[in-house]
Amino acid sequence: YIYQKMMGSFSCLCCLLLFFLIVPSPSNSLSSPPPPPLCHPHESSALLQFRNSFSNLNYSYSFCGSAANPNSTISWDMDMSRDCCTWSGVTCDEAAGRVIRLDLECSGLQGILDSNNTLFSLGHLQSLDLSGNYFYGSEISSQFGRFPNMIHLDLSNSGFTGQVPLELSYLSNLVTLDLRSYYTSVVKLETSSWKRIVANLTNLQELFLSGVNMSSVLPNSFMNLSTSLTTLYLSEYFISENGLKGEFPENIFNLPNLQELDLSGNADLNGSFPQYNWSSPL
């Protein structure tokens, strides 16, 4: 009898031991492996190739002042996970893991930005700020028109040259467009591109074209600007021949949401303020 009782106890101990070996502890069952990188591999690769396409990452543009942040993209190499969503200046859509925003203002980038750059493969971008870098000699590529979801585009004070491409008019969701240059008028906006921009960018709220050569644009074309427009900068600081010419339409003051209008420096522009009550909040 004693023998049978001992054997029964031994069997129970074996069962308990087997139970603890098979059934995981609560702490183990609750633990999970770290989440995979949010960033898509081809987008992190595209960003690194974009950064590496420039000859200098430490350019200091006097325009930037205290906002200068040279070498900021060098930190991209320090993240061995290659999760570009954690990189400086990069924002991703948390649901899809796509790069939707690049804020590289005054990041010290210097070199040519051509149409083959991998930047243009980031097709989900909604906001792009390249202001205060130095792409002198680069034209504003027609590839900038490949971002159908783009809402904010800032290429100001970055040394671009040549024509403003009409492909910018493809960015129908654009709310802010900034092409300003406070140092030299090297970007030119022709009438054909301007008409397409005015016709297609119906969601535009902020338009900054100070320093852009608009000498061929007729002032009366501004009557067709988006009624959503709140801010319009058209000043000319250096070369008066590049400014607007002719009679500026009074109807511009009828834009219902316009709050800021800068026409300074356009020596060949004439006109007068309307004598009636304006409907805009200027």
From TrEMBL:
Which range is the signal sequence, renumbered to this chain? 1-29
Lineage: superkingdom = Eukaryota
Localization, per the record, is:
Membrane
- The molecule here is called LRR domain containing protein
Key word Nucleus present:
no
InterPro entries assigned to the protein according to its UniProt record, in alphabetical order: Leu-rich_rpt (IPR001611), LRR_dom_sf (IPR032675), LRR_N_plant-typ (IPR013210), RLP23-like (IPR046956)
Q: Name one Pfam family in it.
A: LRR_1
What are its GO cellular component terms?
Answer: membrane
| Keyword check for Glycoprotein | yes
Q: How does it sit in the membrane?
A: Single-pass type I membrane protein
- Where the record annotates domain Leucine-rich repeat-containing N-terminal plant-type, the positions are 41-93
This protein's UniProt keywords: Glycoprotein, Leucine-rich repeat, Membrane, Receptor, Repeat, Signal, Transmembrane, Transmembrane helix
Where is it mainly found?
membrane
